[in-house]
Amino acid sequence: MKIEFLCLGTLLGFLLPACQQGGQHGHHHGHANEHMNRASFEELVSNFESSERKEWQKPEEVIALFGELQGKTIMDIGSGTGYFSFPLARAGARVIAADVDERFLNYIKEKKAEKGMSDEQIETRKVPYDSPLLDSAEVDEVIIVNTYHHIENRPQYFAQVHRGLKPGGRLWVIDFKKEETPHGPPLEMRLSPEEVQTELQQAGFASFTLNDTLLPYQYILIAQK
Ligand SMILES: C[S@@+](CC[C@H](N)C(=O)[O-])C[C@H]1O[C@@H](n2cnc3c(N)ncnc32)[C@H](O)[C@@H]1O
Questions:
Q1: Which H or E run includes 13?
Q2: Would the CB of 18 count as within 6 Å of ligand 1?
Q3: Ligand 1 pocket member 183 (CB < 6 A)
Q4: Could you tell me the pTM of the whole model?
């Protein structure tokens, strides 16, 4: 029973993107973050990096949708262990791995050193909860995986993302479908792609493409500047 409970906690932690930092600093940063904070850092890492995840997360197939990445700059918001940052860098992009939690950024730095990768390939950027800290027109693409629903004041937040994108730049929101799935946060925490689109319209995005067929449990909403 105890073990089952622990597994459930870990599983939930995995599905609920977001951060521990809120707990550490005594601030509240939403239910999703609180929920995720129930798992230890080690549990989160092993969940994010679980070998089984590949089967439903299909990172290489998702990354293939981007087209040519050589010479492109891409920010990975809520990068976690770098589950997407590393393959994006391998595909030739210059990646800015952005996270509120220093422990994940340190994890990425260590993995980067082990792989002999440079700061040009992956930069780590500690960001506050309310800003991606992007310069105006700094990046070609922004990806946010299993983290969108953890962000608060989203129209304001994503207006900053909009400003940080180059003209024609794209924001990729990958998050869990609002239906029962074997992985993912509780249904009430999920946002449908229609809800995300409405918020992103408020943030200034006008053009959208939805892919809800590639991944079994998640949708990919692409918003273009
Ligand atoms: C569920 S994890 C997803 C990690 C990674 N994207 C993945 O798919 O494996 C959510 C991540 O978002 C980070 N996070 C939470 N709130 C954030 C915010 N406001 N800005 C940036 N990162 C945030 C957490 O620290 C955590 O690393």
A1: helix 2-15
A2: yes
A3: no
A4: 0.89
